[in-house]
Amino acid sequence: MKGILVNTVTELEPYVLEYTNTSITPPTYSVGPLLHLEHQVDETQEEILRWLDEKPARSVVFLCFGRMGGFGEEQVQEIAVALDRCGHSFIWSLRRSSPNILNEHPEEFKNLEEVLPRGFLERTQERGKVIGWAPQVAILASPAIGGFFTHCGWNSLLESLWFGVPTAAWPLYAEQKFNAFEMVEELGLAVEIKRYWRGDHLGGVAAVELVKAEEIERAVRCLMEQDCDVRKRVKEMSKKCHAALMGDGSSRIALQRFIQDVAKNMAL
């Protein structure tokens, strides 16, 4: 192996890249953020985007947990209670957890009335949308989005930074706890929901610790504060992510260095 291409930005993780480029490992090229920003949306999703267009800037919290992110009924109830109490507008991409996530991905609940608290949909109909699959990039690009509850998949985190949307870290499985730790503890680019995350969704609902409504509500309020430090840091990092892809940006320079090294090795 002659080198490693990494979907990150030098300004985001300088200490890691400094170490890998001065150690015995092959050279590391930070060429990110690599993002797929064009998505087709259907008629239902277009309606959601039109609804967002009518909302004030940074007033809506977005909850979306990736293609493998789903919750059991007890956890759904806790999230709903928190959203009911906090008073903020929201878009909630809600799907049920799978008994065997490796073989069967989460699906939508067949009847939301049965899983959500009594009267929740009626009480929040003017300020909230509970949907299934969400056009995440299109929603994050809306100026109305003020915060993003995410499972901390790396692509989702890069998308949130690109659009300057602060996140609340809710890791579910695999490397997401490491990503959450980095974003919250090391970089200060995300709001904490819980200090410690126990369990893993790959082990099923029973293996995951319940997150209480009080914890979720506190995170929502912290995330949506217009002058919070996390929001300011995310805005600055967003500028750096955009600059990295410009002509003399760090990612463009890294890509050029990669191409030069490939050509050099081919000539040997």
Structure keywords:
single chain, alpha/beta, two-stranded parallel sheet, Rossmann fold, glycosyltransferase, globular, about 270 residues, UDP-glycosyltransferases domain-containing protein
Report on this structure.
With 268 residues, this protein is of the alpha/beta class. The chain folds into two domains: 4-32 and 245-267, no CATH class; 43-237, Glycogen Phosphorylase B (Rossmann fold). It is built from eleven helices and eight strands. It has helices at 14-20, 43-53, 73-86, 112-115, 120-123, 136-140, 154-162, 176-186, 213-223, 229-244, 250-267; strands at 4-6, 28-30, 60-63, 89-93, 128-131, 145-150, 167-169, 190-192. The strands form two sheets. Strands 5-4-3-6-7-8 form a six-stranded parallel sheet, sandwiched between helices. A two-stranded parallel sheet has the order 1-2. The protein is globular. The mean pLDDT is 92.
